[in-house]
């Protein structure tokens, strides 16, 4: 049976776009369909606008800090509408770049919601991106599902009063009092954004420490940094009800506390966006949590259908989706074997103020493999010896396997942590040993040089039983 396309990609986020472009570069006839935003979550409702808003939230402190350096600057008031308009302008520019890249690659673009009819056939129907588009049927030899994920809400009375990150990017004004529920990436970052722009922020988390899954020393340091930022952290607590009174809200917690807010923000996780795809008609199986189950070749239970990115709910980071999309296109249409990606050493960052970043194993994970040497330092960065922010600390930690002396994990909280970590990730991916760090000459004066001057072991961690 002949098909219109060699490859149809459902979802024009970072992973889907990369997959489509690489496949087209190999000579495949490719189509891509998007229902909501060209560029997907990262460009429109995630990484890019969030980082811009984090940067916006830091300028007030920079103005205050400048006084110690001789500047007579004065902190003004922040105009939320100006920020949102500037952010929207940049996102529109990026949307255009994504469309242009796809068109230049010779890829057919469809706008609308996709619904499977069978394993090779989809119907593209009207969607928010193209509400007046007439439905059409598209067939392809191979299909890639790259529809990403969507925010979750807690199942409690009054949950409809809460917003998620999707709505936060389009608030018409900044709320003065914000209750953020959840302390993962999104919760921590938006807490910092709102606090930096002048809001009173309460963060509610189920655990004692934020950022579950990160290294424990890093989590402890972040807990202190959250307090320094002026955010009130409510640990080991969960909301039980949200009530509206006039234009404000009251959040009841399971510990008996109540919190008043102008905005309640749920940052309690995301789930794969697959509900209306009609996967059952295509013979595609789902696994725990509603994710699409795939093997190490990104294949679903239907041999000609693949899934990449957040929809598989494995490692939900934009660069991982891009790597998966690139690899898949190479393996399906390339003449050379696909490149190898070290997903086990994928670096990650959380853009709080100060930011934090990690690569490799946490101390707790690494201890399962053997005895560890831990190197840890905590200091005041040079800028803040003058600014007077003596409580704005930097922490750096190296996790070293004692037997091999390989650096198997690195964790940093402090100014420019993410920028530092990209280079350190190369070293950890390459399997470099502590002696390789030790014999590397540092750049002085920088915070980063501390990573190569950690000479004295802080402690030895025994192998976990």
Description:
Keywords: Disulfide bond, FAD, Flavoprotein, NAD, NADP, Nucleotide-binding, Oxidoreductase, Redox-active center. Its cofactor is FAD. FAD binds at residues 51, 147-149, 310. NAD(+) binds at residues 182-189, 269. One of its GO terms (cellular component) is cytosol. With 465 residues, this protein is α/β, with parallel strands linked by helices. The chain has 3 domains: 5-46 and 82-150 and 271-333, FAD/NAD(P)-binding domain; 154-267, 3-Layer(bba) Sandwich (FAD/NAD(P)-binding domain), CATH 3.50.50; 347-459, FAD/NAD-linked reductase, C-terminal dimerisation domain (Enolase-like, domain 1, 2-Layer Sandwich). The chain is built from 13 helices and 22 strands. The chain has helices spanning 14-25, 40-45, 47-66, 80-104, 165-168, 185-196, 216-228, 279-282, 318-333, 363-366, 382-387, 417-429, 434-438; strands spanning 5-10, 30-34, 108-111, 113-118, 121-125, 136-145, 149-151, 177-181, 200-204, 232-234, 239-245, 248-253, 258-261, 263-266, 270-272, 305-307, 348-350, 356-360, 372-379, 394-401, 407-413, 459-461. The strands form 5 sheets. Strands 1, 2, 3, 4, 5, 6 and 16 form a 7-stranded mixed beta sheet that branches. Strands 17-18-21-20-19-22 form a 6-stranded antiparallel beta sheet, sandwiched between helices. It has a 4-stranded parallel beta sheet with strand order 10-9-8-14. Helix 1 packs parallel to helix 9 (318-333). The longest helix is centred in the N-terminal third of the chain and has 25 residues, at 80-104. The protein is globular, with a radius of gyration of 24 Å. The relative contact order is 0.12. The mean pLDDT is 96.
């Amino acid at each position: 049976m002949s098909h219109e396309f060699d490859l149809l990609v459902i979802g024009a986020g970072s992973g889907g776009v990369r997959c489509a472009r690489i496949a087209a570069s190999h000579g495949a006839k490719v189509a891509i369909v998007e229902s909501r935003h060209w560029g997907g979550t990262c460009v429109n409702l995630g990484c890019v606008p969030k980082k811009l808003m984090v940067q916006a939230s830091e300028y007030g402190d920079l103005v205050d800090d400048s006084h110690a350096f001789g500047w007579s600057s004065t902190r003004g008031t922040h105009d939320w509408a100006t920020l949102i308009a500037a952010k929207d302008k940049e996102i529109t520019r990026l949307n255009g770049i994504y469309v242009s890249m796809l068109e230049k690659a010779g890829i057919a673009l469809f706008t609308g919601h996709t619904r499977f009819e069978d394993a090779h056939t989809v119907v593209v129907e009207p969607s928010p991106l193209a509400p007046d588009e007439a439905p059409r049927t598209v067939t392809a030899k191979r299909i890639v599902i790259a529809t990403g994920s969507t925010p979750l809400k807690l199942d409690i009375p009054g949950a409809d009063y809460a917003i998620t990150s999707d709505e936060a990017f389009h608030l018409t004004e900044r709320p003065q009092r914000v209750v953020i529920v959840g302390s993962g990436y999104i919760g921590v970052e938006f807490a910092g954004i709102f606090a930096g722009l002048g809001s009173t922020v309460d963060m509610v988390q189920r655990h004692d420490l934020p950022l579950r899954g990160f290294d424990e020393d890093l989590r402890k340091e972040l807990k202190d940094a959250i307090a320094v930022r002026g955010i009130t952290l409510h640990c080991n607590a969960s909301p039980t009800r949200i009530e509206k009174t006039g234009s404000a809200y009251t959040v009841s917690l399971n510990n008996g506390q109540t919190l008043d807010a102008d905005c309640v923000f749920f940052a309690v996780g995301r789930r794969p966006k697959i509900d209306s795809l009609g996967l059952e008609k295509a013979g595609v199986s789902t696994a725990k949590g509603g994710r699409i189950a795939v093997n190490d070749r990104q294949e679903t239970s239907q041999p000609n259908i693949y899934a990449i990115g957040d929809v598989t709910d494995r490692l939900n980071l934009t660069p991982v989706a891009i790597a998966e999309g690139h690899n898949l296109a190479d393996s399906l249409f390339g003449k050379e074997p696909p490149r190898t990606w070290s997903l086990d050493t994928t670096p990650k960052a959380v853009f709080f103020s100060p930011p934090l970043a990690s690569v490799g194993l946490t101390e707790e994970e690494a201890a399962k493999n053997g005895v560890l040497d831990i190197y840890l330092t905590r200091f005041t960065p040079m800028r803040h010896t003058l600014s007077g922010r003596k409580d704005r600390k930097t922490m750096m930690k190296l996790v070293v396997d004692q037997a091999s002396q390989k650096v198997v994990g690195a964790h940093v909280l402090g100014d420019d942590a993410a920028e530092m970590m990209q280079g350190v990730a190369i070293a950890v991916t390459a399997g470099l040993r502590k002696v390789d760090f030790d014999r590397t000459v540092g750049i002085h004066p920088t915070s980063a040089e501390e990573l190569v001057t950690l000479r004295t072991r802080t402690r030895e961690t025994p192998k976990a039983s």
